[in-house]
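Bug #77: duplicate submission created two jobs. Keeping one. Sequence:
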Amino acid sequence: MSHTSLTYHIVFGTYRRQYVIPIPHEKELYKYILQLSNDRGVHVWRIGGMPDHIHILCDIPAKLSISEYVKVLKSETSKFLRVSPHFPNWIRWAEGYAAFTVDSSNREIRRQYIINQKEHHSKVGYVDEYRALLYEAGMNPNECFTEED
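Kept job's structure:
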């Protein structure tokens, strides 16, 4: 029997960072993400975000690649958002995503970070947050957005 502990903090935004996920209806999207995740054996610790992006803290089974999981999430949620009357301005997700591994000893810290997104974003915008996450992970934060993102 194989054993893995693969916790990821995944972040992706809306096309051109538009505010198209109304806060009063965001939980509908999160519930749908939870269902998609559960169907694939992904354990979700927390979902949260803002009108222009989302964060997902989850354990992905070894048989599922992170890229395939995000591809399915973005594709299926985009279909869901397109037909829902609660997301009338939906266009699509931006290209790409960020995924950071999270040690199990830091999982609760990251979960609280996602829970506190509304408070966090009263001080910091999505672009600055995304760049800070990349920097913290040792990546180049200056290569994170194009005109189309």
